[in-house]
Amino acid sequence: MEDFEMTIAVNGQQIAASVHPHVEGESTYYDIVTDDFTISIYKDTMYTWAADVNAGFSNEEIQTIGQQLLDY
User: Fold this and answer.
1) pLDDT tens, 50-67?
2) How far from each other are the two terminal CA atoms of the chain, in whole angstroms?
3) 3-state SS, residue 33
4) Are 67 and 59 in contact, with CB atoms under 8 Å apart?
5) How far apart are CA 28 and CA 15, in angstroms?
6) Tens digits of per-residue pLDDT, 25-55?
7) Is 69 helix (H, G, I), strand (E, B) or coil?
8) pTM, 2 dp
9) Can you tell me the distance from the alpha carbon of 58 to that of 2, in angstroms, rounded to the nearest whole number?
């Protein structure tokens, strides 16, 4: 899987991010790195995203970030 750059919208802000997808076990994790934060999220179920460490984001914000990854 290739790393890529994208702009994510979080809390009304547009944030440039580098995304590093990688597989761990049966899950694909997406490490999202910005100047302000780093978070690693994965598809928890068919409809939900999760993070082992939430980096201060709510579940709703994690879902929003995950949806943007799918739309990319």
Assistant:
1) 999 999 999 999 999 999
2) 14
3) strand
4) no
5) 22
6) 989 999 999 999 999 999 998 889 999 999 9
7) helix
8) 0.88
9) 27
Cα–Cα–Cα angle for 58, 60, 65, nearest 5°?
A: 95
- Please give the distance of CA 4 from its chain centroid, rounded to a whole number: 12
Q: Alpha carbon of 52 to those of 2, 14, 38, 58: distances in Å?
A: 22, 24, 12, 12
* Six token digits for residue 58: 């709510």
**Residue 30 near residue 41 (C-beta atoms within 8 A):** yes
Tokens standing for residue 56:
């201060």
Centroid of chain to Cα 64: 9
Distance, CA of 20 to CA of 31 (rounded, Å): 5
Residue with the two structure tokens 């440039």: 16
Edge-to-edge order in the sheet of strand 4-10:
4-10, 13-24, 27-33, 38-43, 49-51
